[in-house]
What we know:
The protein is an alpha+beta fold. The chain has two helices and seven strands; from the N terminus they run ββββαβαββ.
Amino acid sequence: MTTTSSHEGFSPDHLRFPGMSQAVRTGAAVIVSGQVGLDATGKLVSDDPYEQAKQSLVNVQLALEGVGATLSQVTKLVCYLTDPGHFPAYSTAKREIFGPQNGDDAPASTTVVVAALLDPRMLIEVEAYAYIAEPAPAELDPS
């Protein structure tokens, strides 16, 4: 985890890219960068929209855990789809991932159809916003 005076960032090992954190926590607020269907090896999990959606949401969960948050603390999701026909696959994956933690209290959600994502094989990208009731622990002074 990278820490500065105002925020802490985290990236799961398979999602480390120069110049960005996959999740950033500032006090009680957590912002998760757009997650795609990259598996633990860093490769695209499949060309199937459901599999990509599920892996994207698993990656959201991993990023949240890295900054001390959980899926039940997610207040909003934003999903980018390259085809409106992928929405049922995303919706099914979202219910599976969030259902056990949130019951009927699913996060607010926005879905946007875009022309393309960074890699043309990527069909779905999901970003998340979470709120943690207690603030982050104070940074330890090494001196």
